[in-house]
Amino acid sequence: MGKNKLRLRFCKTGNAKYISHLDLMATMQRGLLRAGVNLRYTEGFNPHPIMSIALPLSVGCESVCELMDIDPADPLPGNLNDFFPEGIAVTDSYISEQKFANIVWLGIRGSLMFGGDIAELRERFTQESIIIQKKTKRGVNDIDIIPFIRDVEFHEGDMVTMTAKISAQNPTLSSENLMQALDGDLKPDFTAFCREEVYDAEMNIFR
Amino acid sequence: MNLKLQSILQKVQKPARYSGGEYKQIVKEKSAGLLRVAYCFPDTYEIGMSNLGLRIMYGLLNERDDVWCERVFAPWGDMADLMRENAIPLYGLESGDPIRAFDIVSFSLGTELSYTSVLNMLDLGGIPVKAKDRTSNAPLIIAGGMCAFNPEPLADFIDLFVIGEGEEVIGEIVEAYKLAKTQGIDKPEFLKSASAIGGVYVPSLYDIAYNDDGTVEKIMPREGAPLPIEKRFVADFDASYFPTDTIIPSTGIVHDRVVLELFRGCVRGCRFCQAGHITRPVRARSPETLTRQAIESIQNSGYDEITLSSLSTSDYGELFPLCDQLLSWCESRKVSLSLPSLRADNFSVELMERVQKVRKSGLTFAPEAGSQRLRDVINKNVTEEDLLNTCAIAFAGGWNGVKLYFMLGLPTETDEDVLAIAELSRAVLDTWKRTAKNKNRGVRITVSTSCFVPKPHTPFQWESQVTMAEYQRRVELLRDALISAKAITYNWHTPEMGFVEAALARGNRRVGAVIESAWKSGAYLDTWSEYFSLERWLAVFEQCGLNPEFYATRERSSEEILPWSVVSSGVSEDHFRRERERSKEGQITPDCREQCSACGVSKLAAGGMCHGQK
After folding, report:
1. In this complex, do B23 and A23 lie within 8 Å of one another by their Cβ atoms?
2. Residues of chain B found within 8 Å of residue A11, distances taken between Cβ atoms
3. pLDDT tens digits, A186-199
């Protein structure tokens, strides 16, 4: 990080979960500008504001732990969150030397509308391997997701709650990839996921 | 948001279109006295949110404590199908409440090809599409916008139309509706009282008699309804409402920038142009007002671009002072300025250079016709010399691309006129060869043609549209003439949409049955080539026993009673007749600043206000 860089931690919940990654960049930039926070620009032929968001979130997934690095030319005002659409709120800002590349695990929580026995869901994730088809830039590959998932738990309730930690990078797993494991009778009628925490390789909270 | 809707939004493209929750959307607390308005735009979110009219009406209505106005857009096909499958009725984005529970459902009509979307949106909302099948006041279905200047094709479906600018009349309609609601006045009585509001057209209060040949014999108002309905307009445009603190979408839209409205109306009088005629008289905002609105809009939005919008921006009298004021504020803040709708005859390269410091990609001009003769016929008072001079200065200044827009099928057009487009384009290319600073970069000249659609309330409202086959023949002629010029790219719009647009634009009430049948056989979002089907439209015209050519390609006599003469734009039929005659003689009419052509619009306003005079 440059000496002026600031890391923001923010939520993207409620209706804001439908904002795509690309649109989120514009939305954050405009929100900051409205709040009077100008961003420093890159030099060069086509200057653009210096800004990066860690680990794109898939459309429809909520998060309370998004991270974004900016290079602000102005201090953040106290009422910063008044300038964002509903569901987007900055919860922390700090200077960090840690690179986004050191994020290894993502903690996620999901609500599953599932009428069956949750013991079957638990059992599914205790198997030695779960092969799913995963889309990558190079096409569709079969991968075993078991090495990239840990701490899977299910809890009963109006909806079944699922918590897990999944690989953040190399490969990047998404909640959709987890749900691909639940096919046939195990397929929930409805699912909604939220990204809850980011961790490094030692399972410390990444800041 | 309920789980059923959330579950659907996981399956559709671009769900942010349907979720609401953008910055500055307005949410109010529901109460018994609150009048609920659904402002419906019969096209996608991205198109509708780019419409300044929507933002004006949304802002104006929501300034009132007694009204909550919400937005509704036409869902894309994937969403519309899933909504039907899951019995989710069309809803307002702010509250998620179904539009059938609203008091007033209002449609903005910007193009005739959106008519089937209006019907589909009503149906998706669980609202009967025919006005006669809706017996109570709620929801009242109203419509306005450019296309309301021929309201007849939608007369069966809409309870009342607003003719002209909506800023003032919408408040009067709201008051009348509130009165009817509190006093328990029934729909027929309410509509009768509403017809007394200036600029309001209640189609159910008019009977139309037809001649054997299908033309209108007589328009007969009942119960004291006025004939014609005179359009409304905002007299003091400088002081009129402009939304400087408006919704900022969280997803990309067509115009993701601040749009400043410089003036309404146009002094030019191009004979094909409906907008230029129906928005008269010309009324401008002062540079001071515009600068203030621009600064507020940029600060409130976080946008980094301002567009100066009007029908002919280079005709804005104080364009230089305005741009100076704006640029001095914008430059240090990395806000850019863009100037669409410039004319080739008074284009200022100095201005463009100041405005477009970063990118010198392309310039766009619309000579509309290739030969001077035909440009005189249509009163597009731009000469070849103007265009070539402008291009010469631009090329010398480093521009290396120009786009030229033309129409084919203009009245009196001959093959010579078509070929003149090729000659003019080659002359632009020669100009580049003579004047370009750096020829190594090459040049891109793009020529585009579309098929002329004669529109109501223009001097060409009586003219025929060329057939699709004839348009295509002229396209081939031009294409062959341009084929050897490698630096010139020729793009043409296919004529099918233009043909249906022409049939609907000059339709009478009988066309309503065609629109309904088209919608029933699946027509929706007809401005999109993914959805438009000429075959479907031809089939339903036939089913309804009507000939689309009667509306599109038939030349009318100047004496024919036109279906849209039920409304008046203030520009008189006599003026249009005179202009039609002058066009046939190839005589131009000077613009309003040089000489008044007595179009009649000054009679609408006390004091005879015209072209920016006070």
Report:
1. no
2. none
3. 999 999 999 999 99
The encoded tokens of residue B176 equal 């009348």
Closest chain A C-alpha to B288 CA, distance in angstroms: 23
Cβ-based contacts of B19 with chain A (< 8 Å): 15, 18
Nearest to B300 among A27, A34, A46 (CB): A34
Inter-chain touch A59–B15, beta carbons under 8 Å: yes
Q: How many A-B residue pairs are in contact by the CB < 8 A criterion?
A: 70
- Give me the CATH code for the B257-341+570-614 domain, please: 3.30.750.210
Kindly list the structural domains of chain A, giving each domain's residue range(s) and its CATH number in brackets, ordered by start. Answer: 6-97 (3.30.70), 103-199 (3.30.70)
Angle in degrees, CA B193, B194, B199, rounded to 5: 135
Domain positions in chain B: 3-230, 257-341+570-614, 361-494
* Rg of chain A over all Cα atoms, to the nearest angstrom: 19
Top-level CATH class of B361-494?
Answer: alpha beta
Q: Do domains B257-341+570-614 and B361-494 have the same CATH topology?
A: yes
Q: Which of A28, A32, A33 to mutate to test the interface with B (most CBs of B within 10 A)?
A: A33
Nearest CB partner across the interface for A16, out of B10, B250, B301: B250
* Cβ(B395)–Cβ(B435) below 8 Å: yes
User: B607 pLDDT exceeds 70?
Assistant: no
Distance CA A68, CA B62 (A): 35
Report how far apart, in Å, the C-alpha atoms of B581 and of each of A91, B268, B462 are: 70, 17, 11
Q: How many CA atoms lie within 13 A of B611 on its CB side?
A: 19
Q: Could you give the CA distance from residue A3 to residue B371 in angstroms, rounded to a whole number?
A: 63
pTM of the model: 0.95
pLDDT surpassing 90 at residue B173? yes
Q: Using CB atoms, which residue from A34, A60, A83 is nearest to B9?
A: A60
**A3 token code pair:** 């000496």
Beta strands B206-210 and B216-221: pairing type? antiparallel
Distance, CA of B137 to CA of B260 (rounded, Å) = 36
Six token digits for residue B488: 């010139």
Q: How many CA atoms lie within 13 A of B173 on its CB side?
A: 31
Tell me if B15 and A34 make a contact (CB, 8 A cut-off): no
Residue contact B15–A18, C-beta within 8 A: yes
Lowest average pLDDT, out of A135-144, A177-186, B146-155, B503-512, goes to: A135-144
